[in-house]
Write a structure and sequence with these properties.
The chain is of the alpha/beta class. The longest helix is centred in the middle third of the chain and has 15 residues. The protein folds into two domains: 136 residues, Rossmann fold (3-Layer(aba) Sandwich), CATH 3.40.50.2300; 73 residues, Winged helix-like DNA-binding domain superfamily/Winged helix DNA-binding domain (Arc Repressor Mutant, subunit A, Orthogonal Bundle), CATH 1.10.10.10. Helix 8 crosses helix 11. The protein is built from eleven helices and six strands.
């Protein structure tokens, strides 16, 4: 059962979303809250698998709430919901560890699938926002923005770790990486955890950004 918390300052939206998501036999909405601060408290109390987070909320916005949640509870996945396809929010959401970025007009079926994808270690982004992300990653690849990692840390990655990092940069889930590299999912999780420690990065989203920025995503590996 995938445990979900919904954070949005529009009560009617929260309750409607709760009803339609609870129809799914593999999901349970364990709480609804109206601001980012309450979302952090709810995660501490219920330890959900996924949080559906509005961007613009009182007390603490969705981007800042995502950062706090991912720092304190890194296993919890966060999907940002917004009516604004804005570059600033896309960057902030990804940098702070979001596993998805969807517009509020997203269909119920697609939203439920996004929750499942995030829960399984993947990420889903609304097609209307994809072009913004491509521009962002292009800027990163040219050194205009990025996820700084010391050269010594990067050099510490082994030949066995690099293909996994490359696959994360391509947006593959743990299951897909395991199948492609003939590894178990547990081994993939352990490698990613080790790599994050070596590079000093917080989560797989930051790792993916770093892989894009450095060109590792497209590099031919020995």
């Amino acid at each position: 059962m995938i445990r979900v918390v919904i954070a949005d300052d529009q009560e009617l939206f929260c309750q409607s979303l709760k009803i339609v998501l609870n129809v799914n036999p593999d999901m349970e909405v364990v709480d609804t809250v109206s601001d980012g601060g309450a979302a952090v408290e709810s995660v501490a109390k219920y330890r959900p698998d996924v949080v559906l987070m509005d961007i613009r909320m009182p007390v603490m916005d969705g981007v800042e709430a995502t950062r706090t949640i991912k720092e304190k509870y890194p296993a919890t996945k966060v999907i940002l919901l917004t009516t604004f396809a804005d570059d600033e929010y896309v960057f902030g959401a990804l940098k702070n560890g979001a596993s998805g970025y969807l517009l509020k007009g997203t269909g119920v079926t697609e939203l439920a699938e996004a929750i499942r994808v995030a829960h399984n270690g993947g990420a889903m982004v609304n097609p209307n926002i994809a072009s913004k992300m491509i521009q962002l990653f292009s800027s990163m690849a040219h050194g205009e923005a990025g996820m700084p990692v010391e050269d010594e840390r990067a050099a510490s990655l082994t030949k066995g770790e690099l293909p996994v990092v490359q696959s994360v940069g391509r947006g593959l889930s743990n299951k897909e990486i395991a199948a492609e590299l003939c590894l178990s999912e547990g081994t993939v999780r352990n490698i990613i955890s080790t790599v994050l420690g070596k590079l000093g990065l917080r989560d797989r989203t930051q790792l993916a950004i770093w892989a894009v920025e450095t060109g590792l995503r497209r590099r031919d590996l020995p």
